[in-house]
């Protein structure tokens, strides 16, 4: 599983690395709503929450579906502006870009998470399709009365909701984000400058792989692949590829691949992630390997000491080919190590790899 971006024919000057205050505000709202996703931000979340005005906190809950699951494409509006645009230098500039989206774009993006609208393929707007509208309200009702009220207002009066959202984001800026952005923008600007230098002097492959081990580029095929637990595809024709850094985003590596919008890779900087996290395929191999009861019993032995195949045969009362087959599955998954001592081959559990499985799985889910 992965999300791919077809960049065949993309000129180097059409790749831009630019910080985005609006995207960082979106990630800030997400971290405040889902602090469990961001344990490294616990101090910041506690500080902001403690001084947050109760009325603003209530408004934050009113439309939190826009940022709780992850954050909506509405926080990357430059990707949807006709003809394409770059992130603005200030929040006000980016809110002006948000205003340039059509009502159809705004509503479809706002309902992405809660109403299961088509994402990577062309489809009628929910504002123009009665059946999509009905389904959106039905799915919103399943999520609770507050969600239903907001969705109904969004469908009936999108202009008023757009004004509400802009005012809310401006109030968040005044309450806590302006101070946060003043501290973070220097780090993000420095990172964008470094990636741009990599892009100019060492090429797109070097720039992309420096972002995350989950990002690869097949230059011959003209395709960027982001290793994620989902499927998706985007095609660049006459647009650009935007790389947007975030200081608040780890462990999320977000890919905007909405049909008709220019692709955006929103990546975390200064993240504490493991140097070489396993791919989704490797993670699947490891979890599948551990799902068999015999291999779980073998792991119990190998966690305590090294064993030869013949010793394991005696312990488990199985044939040598059977034990060898199970050991082969564990080794292919990277869960055991082997070393030779004379004529004996010793097997041992890689305790570090097993201990990381939980965090690796969570990172893959949230990536």
Summary?
The chain is α/β, with parallel strands linked by helices. It has helices at 21-33, 42-50, 54-62, 91-99, 103-110, 130-142, 145-156, 158-202, 204-209, 280-289, 293-304, 309-316, 320-332, 351-355, 357-366, and strands spanning 2-6, 15-17, 215-218, 223-227, 232-235, 241-246, 254-256, 264-268, 336-341, 344-349.
Mean pLDDT across residues: 87
Query: Main beta sheet, described?
Result: 4 strands, mixed
The count of β-strands is 10
Between the first and last Cα atoms, what is the distance in angstroms? 13 Å
H and E order: EEHHHHHHHHHEEEEEEHHHHEEHH
User: Which geometry do the CA atoms define?
Assistant: elongated
Strand arrangement in the largest pleated sheet: 3-4-1-5
What share of the residues lie within helices?
Answer: 40-55%
Low-confidence stretches: none
Please tell me how large the radius of gyration is: 24 Å
Strand content: 5-15%
Given helix and strand content, the structural type is: alpha/beta
How many H/I helices?
A: 15
């Amino acid at each position: 599983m992965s999300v791919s971006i077809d960049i065949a024919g993309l000129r180097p000057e059409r790749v831009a690395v630019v910080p985005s205050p609006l995207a960082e505000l979106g990630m800030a709202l997400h971290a405040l709503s889902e602090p469990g996703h961001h344990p490294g931000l616990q101090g910041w979340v506690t500080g902001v929450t403690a001084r947050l005005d109760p009325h603003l906190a209530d408004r934050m809950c009113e439309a939190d579906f826009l940022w709780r699951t992850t954050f909506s494409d509405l926080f990357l509006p430059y990707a949807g502006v006709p003809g394409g645009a770059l992130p603005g230098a200030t929040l006000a500039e980016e809110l002006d870009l948000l205003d340039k989206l059509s009502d159809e774009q705004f509503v479809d993006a706002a309902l992405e998470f809660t109403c299961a609208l088509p994402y990577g393929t062309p489809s009628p707007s929910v504002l123009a399709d009665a059946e999509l509208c009905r389904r959106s309200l039905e799915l919103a009702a399943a999520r609770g009365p507050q969600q239903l009220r907001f969705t109904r207002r969004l469908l009936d009066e999108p202009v008023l909701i757009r004004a509400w959202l802009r005012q809310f984001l401006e109030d968040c800026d005044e309450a806590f984000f302006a101070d946060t952005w003043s501290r973070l923008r220097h780090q993000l600007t420095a990172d964008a400058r470094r990636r741009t230098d990599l892009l100019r002097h060492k090429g797109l492959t070097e720039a992309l792989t420096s972002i995350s081990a989950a990002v690869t580029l097949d230059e011959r095929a003209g395709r960027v692949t982001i290793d994620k637990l989902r499927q998706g595809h985007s095609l660049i024709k006459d647009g650009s590829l935007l790389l947007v850094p975030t200081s608040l985003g780890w462990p999320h590596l977000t890919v905007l691949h909405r049909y008709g919008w220019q692709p955006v890779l929103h990546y975390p900087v200064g993240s504490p992630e493991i140097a070489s996290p396993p791919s989704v395929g490797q993670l699947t191999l490891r979890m599948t390997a551990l799902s068999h009861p015999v291999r779980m019993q073998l792991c119990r032995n190998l966690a305590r000491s090294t064993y030869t195949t013949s010793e394991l045969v005696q312990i488990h009362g199985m044939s040598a080919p059977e034990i060898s087959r199970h050991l082969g599955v564990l080794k292919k998954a990277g869960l055991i190590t082997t070393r030779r001592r004379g004529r004996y081959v010793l097997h041992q559990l890689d305790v570090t790899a097993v201990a990381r499985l939980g965090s690796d799985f969570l990172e893959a889910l949230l990536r």
